[in-house]
Design goal:
The chain folds into three domains: 2-203; 230-380, Alpha-Beta Plaits; 396-652, EAL domain (TIM Barrel). Helix content is 62%, strand content 15%. The protein is built from 26 helices and 16 strands. The strands form three sheets. Strands 8-9-11-12-13-14-15-16 form an eight-stranded mixed β-barrel. The termini are far apart.
């Protein structure tokens, strides 16, 4: 009984649902009570006292009207759980008071009037209690309480009369009331069950929504740094373009790439590299504002969308501020690691009006900056656009090119300056396109790498170089350049090894030159390719030493046979003490490691003399010879029975 009459204090959802359903029925209940009371008062108007037929009914009907208006205006959704339970509790009290009042009033009219009037009292009480049960079914405690308050005195009162008609009405009322109570209890259980089922369904929907929101967040967030990811960046870029078109505004797309990140990965491990990215992400995030959207695009590349700026100078200032954030040392495994970055910028609508164009322009500006002005902010300009257009033509020509017919090699001798004799040749790529003409290798080779065409070019040129070297004396070496893409491409490396074997040339006469970029940036994969070449018997030369950021630990692991000192140091040797010191240090390092050392870019006799004083012996440059075709090498060898050429003779040629 306590459970039946208890209010849902601990079930806020059920309390609100009860009150909501009940609030729609209670005005009808008050309307029924008022109408029935007026009808009963009218039938007793001539026989009962005035206070029973006028004043009491007016008071009761007025109270019912006030309560009906209250319930019509009640906003259940604005109530808290505690307020909803309080309303239900108040309703229970009022049901008891009103039920008792109406019962006493109606029984007070029974002594007045004739037989029909007495039957009307019984009928009024019967039909009213049935109506109340139906209207109060969502608040079962109130319905049962009203039933007990009305039916109990009704039954006792009319049983005492001894009137068989009234007694029959009592029995009928008890039977009907019992049936209605049973129906009401079942309906209430169904109602409560429906509320609970709806709550379970809502909870599941909320869980599904939360899971969906989390999946959406993960889909648009970088799991390592927590920043928006590439998908989020491109989505935001599309929206920014639409807004800029609508409002005729400008915005900038910037791509940031870390300098030296792969070296950190190789030296300290990938876990340290991830920690570094997290630190960088936090630093960059500190620069985020309503006008700056930041995302990690992948690896060590980040993207920025900048809106609301007034000039390009403001963009440059922001870019420099971001780069300054990166320069502070990062602590990894109790060690301070220095990193830097380069930024490429494309501005809408000046250099592009689509997401693809803006992204490509910013990427080109970044690439150009890393090649020429590392650590700076580069805004894509008209000069860059002209280069892009030219590169586009070259790229299309590359895709259509007949490499066998259009690609060729020239050879520059490597000279022993002490004996004045040639010890080998470096093969240098040349491309003559029928439409464009002669294209510099500094232009087409990077494009070929970026467009995945370098492997085909490498295979074509190596085949020609090996064919040209077959008639050379057995002590002459062939130096051939491999790109980063070649080293990490298993198919290309397999083809390279097979061509060396099939050429019949001793593998130790073939020297494969790799750049510092190839050796350092993808060290793990490059190391596999280099190891395969060494297993074949070929020699490995590190080209352009000093132009990048070499790791001596990596150099030792590679077990190099030769190092080439970058020609920019030679150009400054006669006016820079630092250049001389660097060359001397490298020469001493090579001597200590038992590695041969070649100096590139020797153009004057003064440079040759200074290099010899620094301990250099193997040299290469215009002083000795410009690159020559394979046919000139054959003629040179045919004219020299001893297979050696003095400096003077070679320079004259």
């Amino acid at each position: 009984m306590r459970a039946i009459f208890a209010l849902p204090v601990g079930d806020a959802e059920l309390a609100r649902s009860q009150l909501d359903a009940f609030s729609k029925q209670i005005p009808r209940l008050y309307l029924i009570l008022s109408f029935n009371a007026i009808a009963l008062a009218v039938t007793h108007a001539r026989t009962a006292p005035l206070y029973l037929t006028l004043y009491v009914p007016l008071l009761l009907c007025g109270l019912c009207t006030v309560r009906a208006i209250f319930w019509r205006r009640l906003r259940v959704d604005a109530l808290s759980a505690e307020e909803a339970v309080d309303r239900l509790r108040t309703t229970m009290y009022l049901v008891a008071v009103l039920g008792l009042t109406f019962t006493v009033w109606s029984l007070s009219l029974y002594p007045y009037g004739g037989a029909f009037a007495k039957c009307h009292v019984a009928f009024y009480m019967s039909i009213t209690v049935i109506s109340c049960i139906l209207c109060l079914m969502h608040l079962r405690g109130a319905a049962l309480l009203l039933t007990a308050i009305v039916v109990t005195p009704f039954t006792i009162f009319f049983l005492i009369t001894g009137n068989m008609v009234l007694i029959a009405m009592v029995l009928n009322l008890i039977l009907v009331t019992g049936g209605l109570i049973g129906i009401m209890l079942r309906n209430y259980d169904d109602f409560a069950g429906l509320v609970r089922s709806r709550r379970v369904l809502i909870d599941r929907q909320q869980q599904m929504q939360a899971l969906s929101d989390e999946n959406l967040r993960l889909a648009y967030s970088d799991s390592l740094t927590g920043l928006p990811n590439r998908r989020s960046f491109l989505t935001r870029l599309d929206k920014t373009i639409l807004a800029a078109r609508r409002d005729s505004t400008r915005f900038a797309v910037a791509l940031l790439d870390l300098d030296g990140f792969k070296s950190v990965n190789d030296v300290y491990g990938h876990a340290a590299g991830d920690d570094l990215l997290v630190i960088v992400g936090r630093r960059l995030e500190s620069a985020v504002s309503p006008n700056i959207f930041l995302a990690r695009l992948g690896g060590d590349e980040f993207g920025v969308i900048l809106t609301g700026f007034s000039s390009n100078a403001e963009v440059m200032t922001l870019g420099r501020d971001i780069l300054a954030l990166l320069r502070a040392p990062c602590i990894l495994k109790d060690k301070a690691v220095a990193v830097a970055g380069s930024i490429g910028v494309a501005i809408y609508p000046e250099v592009g009006q689509t997401a693809e164009d803006l992204f490509e322009r910013a990427d080109y500006a970044l690439y150009f900056g890393k090649q020429t002005q590392k650590g700076q902010v580069i805004i894509f300009s008209e000069s860059h656009a002209e280069t892009v257009r030219l590169n586009g033509r070259i790229e299309q020509a590359l895709r259509r090119a007949d490499f066998e017919a259009e690609m060729d090699l020239v050879y520059q001798p490597i000279v022993d300056s002490i004996t004045n004799r040639i010890i080998g040749f470096e093969a240098l790529a040349r491309w003559h396109n029928p439409e464009i003409g002669l294209v510099s290798p500094h232009v087409f080779l990077p494009l070929a790498e970026r467009r995945q065409l370098i492997g085909q070019i490498t295979e074509t040129l190596l085949r020609k170089a090996l064919r040209a070297a077959q008639p050379w004396p057995p002590h002459f070496t062939l130096s051939f350049n491999l790109s980063t893409r070649d080293l990490i491409n298993p198919g290309t490396m397999t083809a390279v090894r097979e061509m060396v074997i099939e050429s019949g040339i001793e593998p130790d006469r073939v020297e494969f030159e790799i750049t510092e970029t190839a050796a350092i940036e993808d060290f793990a994969e490059a190391f596999v390719g280099i190891s395969q070449l060494r297993a074949l018997g070929a020699r490995i030369t590190l080209d352009d030493f000093g132009a990048g950021f070499s790791s001596l630990g990596h150099l030792l692991r590679l077990k190099l046979d030769k190092i080439k000192i970058d020609g920019r140091f030679v150009r400054d040797i006669d006016r820079s003490d630092a250049a001389s010191s660097i060359i001397r240090s490298v020469v001493n390092l090579c001597r200590d490691l038992d590695i041969a050392c070649v100096v590139e870019g020797v153009e004057t006799e003064e440079q040759r003399v200074m290099l010899e004083e620094l301990g250099c012996r193997l040299m290469q440059g215009y002083l000795f010879s410009r690159p020559i075709p394979a046919s000139a090498i054959a003629a040179l060898m045919a004219s020299d029975a001893e297979m050696g050429v003095t400096l003077a003779a070679l320079a004259a040629r």
